[in-house]
Design a protein that fits this description.
286 residues, alpha/beta, 7-stranded parallel sheet, 8 helices, 7 strands, 36% helix, globular
């Protein structure tokens, strides 16, 4: 169950996207007593950034619903192997692939390997991201700007292009955007811009793929307790993370994962071009 205590101990990790096993408290990703009902039986899902945080929670939720998983991650090998073990404990198959999703060649080769391994691909979750707070736009270097867009937005294009030829009628693409795409964030200008681009991409691609029977939607989480937080912010900011939501606390990955299950399954069959908002109570129009 989610931790109702809004305060997180002061902590910091030096490298993004961070590792889950160093976090205190550990994020909740299992969904408590939530049980699957076969909503994704026989499906194969690819999740980028699937080693920890929201990606891990989605992987486990999909596995409980009967899906086999392919997890793509950067270099957090221990976290990735933990996710794989958790997925396999649900009786699902799982492969892990390490690499940089900002590289188009890597994206194409990963999709090829996944289809070769499982024989098909039904659901793509574009979830990998990075963020680097800066006090002013004047502090955002060209290298940071390009890196953030390549990881957060270019990867969505690359992975979608590679996966699309394999997605069948009834397939689903789910992109992770952010509440920052809607309300903005003065210290995350480039990150917020990438997430806004993902919203527009989701809406446009959904229209382009209607004739192919592939649904395209997105999820816009609010402040969620994931490794990206201690690897992004100084200890004092981590301590107060999520307190400004209507619910007064950060969300847990397990509270976001059901949105992805809904959009990936037949439960969401009348949804395309839409964004779900598990954000702790922010009223978002759009």
């Amino acid at each position: 169950m989610p931790d109702e205590n809004p305060t997180r101990p002061r902590q910091h990790q030096e490298h993004q996207p961070g590792v889950e096993f160093e976090m205190r408290p550990q994020p909740h990703f299992e969904g408590g007593e939530r049980r699957g009902s076969g909503k994704l039986e026989g499906k194969v899902a690819l999740i980028t950034g699937g080693d920890s945080g929201i990606g891990r929670a989605v992987a486990l939720a999909f596995a409980k619903e009967g899906a086999d998983l392919a997890i793509i991650y950067l270099q957090e090998h221990d976290d990735a192997q933990t996710t794989r073990r958790l997925v396999e404990e649900q009786g699902a198959r799982c492969i892990t692939i390490a690499g940089d999703v900002s590289d188009e060649t890597f994206c194409a080769s990963s999709v090829g390997r996944i289809v070769s391994e499982f024989g098909h691909l039904d659901v793509l979750v574009n979830n990998a991201a990075e963020q680097h707070p800066q006090k002013s736009i004047e502090d955002i270097s060209r290298d940071q700007l390009e890196r953030t867009f390549r990881t957060n937005t270019f990867s969505v294009f690359y992975m979608t292009k590679a996966a699309l030829k394999h997605l069948p009628e009834g397939g689903a693409i789910i992109n992770t955007t952010s509440v920052t795409a809607y309300r903005g964030n003065p210290t995350l200008l480039d990150y917020s811009a990438t997430k806004g681009a993902i919203v527009s991409f989701t809406r446009s691609l959904s229209q382009a793929l209607v004739s192919r029977g592939v649904r395209v939607n997105a999820v816009a989480p609010g402040p969620i307790w994931t490794p990206l937080i201690p690897s992004t912010y100084p200890p004092e900011k981590v301590e107060s993370f999520g307190k400004n939501t209507a619910l007064g606390r950060p969300g847990e990955p397990e509270e976001v994962a059901p949105s992805y299950v809904f959009l990936a399954s037949k439960d969401g069959s009348y949804f395309t071009g839409q964004v779900l908002h598990p954000n702790g109570g922010d009223i978002i129009n759009g």
